[in-house]
Amino acid sequence: MAAPPSSSPSASYCVEPATSPIFGGSLKTGKIEQPHLRFLPVLRKNQGFALKASMGSPGFTQQLDKSKLETLSKAEDRCDIFDSLKDRFLNFKSKYMENVEQFENLAKAQSPKFMVIACADSRVCPSNILGFQPGEAFVIRNVANLVPTFERGPSEVNAALEFAVNTLKVENILVIGHSCCGGIRALMSMEDDANSSSFIHNWVIVGKNAKKKTETAASTLSFDDKCTHCEKESINHTLLNLLTYPWIEEKVANGELSVHGGYYDFIKCSFEKWTLDYRGTKLEEDGRIAAIDKVLWC
Ligand SMILES: [Zn+2]
């Protein structure tokens, strides 16, 4: 019986560009040869191989053998996943090549009209649901699409805001919330005053005013319905938080910048959009936004 390619399966079962000698050559054809994978079916068919070859006890060796096959299976799955990503990238590249001039211009500069703040949830990618193309939207995503107040100090969210508003001079900030948001559920579930070492707790607490308003306005609702209510309340709360940044408020007051809320319901596949009316909005601590241009796309 032929020996397997290696006696100890390892991470090398996926091609690693830094070490693979075939990486450079394979780029010309777009096909990466993975010769080690040719042995996988052989290994699967010969599950007794390790048992016969081993000097150890049969039980122990069987365990090792099972573990080896599971590792190989996982490695193969990982390769399949990246094969799929490679295909998608090459598909994107074919579109790139059809619009080379557009991408050459984007390589020199970007001037997006939108900054989008969306949840990190894998189901709510803004480019996917709203069709943003490269160069159209400067996007930041975080758990529950929150923006801390100006007073809370530096964060990656306000670093991105500063760049988008003051350097790129975007004309619109769109905050997108969504149905079944796990971050909002965590906010609604947590103890208000509990000290927690959880990073999630210490992040979603940014939305505590939205939770407070939900508890007051929707006290008779079920927990699930309260979460749905808070998903929208939190978007408005984030719009108010945006106005705590002096350079955002100034541009909104001057009409140079508009801030909008959006709510994507992926159960109904609908999208609500509204725009903050600066003149009618109350900015004090318990403030409430006035909204205009409400639309529902369904
Ligand atoms: Zn979410």
From TrEMBL:
The protein depicted here goes by the name: Carbonic anhydrase
Q: Which Gene3D superfamilies match?
A: Carbonic anhydrase (3.40.1050.10)
Q: Which organism is it from?
A: Stylosanthes scabra
Q: Which PANTHER family match?
A: CARBONIC ANHYDRASE (PTHR11002:SF12)
Is Zinc among the key words of this record?
yes
Task: Give the EC number.
Answer: 4.2.1.1
Which reactions fall under this protein's catalytic activity? hydrogencarbonate + H(+) = CO2 + H2O
Q: What does this protein do?
A: Reversible hydration of carbon dioxide.
- Which InterPro entries does this UniProt record tie to the protein? Beta_CA_cladeB, Carbonic_anhydrase, Carbonic_anhydrase_CS, Carbonic_anhydrase_sf
Q: What SMART domains does the record tag this protein with?
A: Pro_CA
Family to which this protein belongs: Belongs to the beta-class carbonic anhydrase family.
Keyword annotations of the record: Lyase, Zinc
